């Protein structure tokens, strides 16, 4: 689906209904399976990745196709290792390029029977599930928080529980904190001291949970509020006490002139030009890598010399996000250059509008992060715009409600 995005007035006003958090929903679905008694997940995400996980967990298929859903693949790797029976877990061509070795090695340490069916360290894998005792594992914490969350979710059901010794700097730490907070709400006690997380053997309690709206999805409306000529947007359902690490976006966009007011049932964004506009934006995204794509377009449009650090994990996401950003932002006259192994910089060149379509690389965040740049030119064309279904199926409808014109092209 090719879409032409424009905004006749460049003034943003209205209300936005955000999707429920995919990250929270997926964790709760695994907990639901590990709990001895049923419980209700209220306001569960209807994102494609979550619906895929629901379908997989309800099926008795032996061959499981997780498609391009990284969280789903990693959570199921640990989950099926603990379930009686044999499963083959596979995915899309891109999924087969995404490493799984760190998680498989950790699971094997506590007795899991997992074999690679093609290239060592990568999907597809064959899992012969069985009861595992648990114990102590040492795992590299710098690669993906999803590996750690996958292990933590099954930890209470292991006979000896689980003690995780995390090596190195911990990537996307707020996502691990989210996992533990959800486990705590479901009756699980744990201890996190230094780089060691200990979860004793215990049972999940069946308590109904309401899923929060997604702060990652909210970030695109913060960006649009800053890019618009004027803006006053209400994002329904968000609250200040979120367990999502990407809620940091509210603080970061103050530097771009977006003021946040907290309401009873949501937040209000209002664009206010800062008195002393800053000349540079450097930030370490190690704990919130999903926000990188939100900030690249607006930093480029403002032509701010910028270093984005903590971006190592972006290369093993739905696409190589660093390379995808480099190609697409170049269409606007901005160079994205490597700074070091874990950083890149945007060079202030001459930002200009483009007639070239934005490619999405099968990545939902590429579509949503670039859509806001239509506020800075007559229109923007986005190819394969349906990729937003992965996390925010009604994204284009949400834009339509705040004044954007969305046209499907042949």
Protein architecture, described:
- The chain is of the alpha/beta class.
- The protein has 2 domains: 2-19 and 213-409, Enolpyruvate transferase domain (UDP-n-acetylglucosamine1-carboxyvinyl-transferase, Chain), CATH 3.65.10.10; 22-210, Enolpyruvate transferase domain (UDP-n-acetylglucosamine1-carboxyvinyl-transferase, Chain).
- It has 12 helices and 21 strands.
- The strands form 6 sheets. It has a 4-stranded mixed beta sheet with strand order 2-13-15-14. Strands 4-5-7-6 form a 4-stranded mixed beta sheet, with helices on one face.
- The longest helix has 13 residues, at 22-34.
- It is globular, with a radius of gyration of 21 Å.
What layout of secondary structure does this protein have?
Elements: E1 2-6, E2 11-17, H1 22-34, E3 41-42, H2 48-58, E4 63-65, H3 70-81, E5 85-90, H4 101-109, E6 113-116, E7 125-129, E8 135-140, H5 145-154, E9 162-167, H6 173-185, E10 191-193, E11 196-199, E12 209-210, H7 215-227, E13 230-236, H8 249-252, E14 258-263, E15 266-271, E16 283-284, H9 292-302, E17 306-309, H10 321-329, E18 335-340, E19 343-347, H11 364-371, E20 380-382, H12 395-401, E21 405-409
Parallel strand pairs: 2-13, 3-12, 4-5, 8-9, 16-17
Antiparallel strand pairs: 1-20, 1-21, 5-7, 6-7, 9-11, 10-11, 13-15, 14-15, 17-19, 18-19
Helix pairs in contact: 1-2, 1-3, 1-6, 3-5, 4-5, 5-6, 9-11
């Amino acid at each position: 689906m090719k879409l032409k995005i424009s905004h006749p007035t460049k003034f943003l006003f209205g209300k936005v209904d955000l999707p429920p958090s995919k990250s929270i929903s997926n964790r709760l679905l695994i907990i639901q399976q590990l709990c001895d008694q049923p419980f209700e997940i209220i306001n569960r995400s209807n994102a494609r990745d979550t619906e895929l996980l629901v379908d997989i967990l309800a099926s008795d298929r032996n061959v499981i196709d997780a498609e391009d859903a990284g969280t789903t693949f990693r959570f199921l790797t640990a989950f099926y290792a603990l379930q009686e029976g044999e499963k083959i877990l596979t995915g899309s061509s891109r999924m087969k390029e995404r490493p799984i070795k760190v998680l498989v090695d950790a699971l094997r340490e506590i007795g899991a029977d997992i074999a690679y069916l093609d290239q060592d360290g990568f999907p597809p894998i064959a899992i012969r599930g069985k009861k595992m005792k648990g114990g102590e594992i040492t795992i590299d914490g710098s690669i993906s928080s999803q590996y750690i969350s996958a292990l933590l979710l099954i930890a209470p059901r292991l006979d000896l529980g689980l003690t995780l010794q995390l090596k190195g700097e911990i990537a996307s730490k707020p996502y691990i904190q989210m996992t533990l907070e959800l486990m705590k709400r479901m009756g699980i006690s744990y201890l996190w001291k230094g780089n060691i997380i200990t979860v004793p053997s215990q049972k999940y309690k069946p308590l109904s949970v309401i899923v929060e709206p997604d702060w990652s999805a909210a970030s695109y409306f913060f960006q649009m509020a800053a890019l618009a000529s004027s803006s006053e947007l209400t994002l329904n359902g968000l609250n200040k006490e979120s367990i999502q690490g990407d809620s940091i976006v509210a603080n970061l966009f103050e530097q771009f002139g977006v003021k946040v007011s907290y309401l009873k049932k949501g937040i209000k964004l209002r664009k206010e030009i800062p008195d002393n506009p800053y000349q540079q934006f450097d930030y370490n995204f190690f704990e919130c890598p999903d926000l990188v794509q939100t900030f690249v377009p607006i930093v480029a449009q403002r032509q701010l010399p910028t270093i984005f650090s903590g971006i190592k994990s972006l290369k093993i996401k739905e696409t190589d996000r660093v390379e995808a950003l480099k190609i697409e932002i170049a269409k606007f006259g901005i160079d994205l250059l490597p700074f070091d192994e874990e950083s890149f910089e945007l060079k202030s060149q001459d930002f200009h509008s483009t007639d070239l379509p934005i490619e999405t690389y099968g990545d939902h965040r590429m579509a949503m992060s670039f859509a806001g740049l239509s506020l800075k030119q007559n229109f923007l064309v986005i190819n394969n715009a349906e990729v937003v279904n992965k996390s925010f199926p009604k994204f284009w409808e949400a834009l339509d409600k705040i004044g954007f014109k969305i046209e499907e092209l042949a």
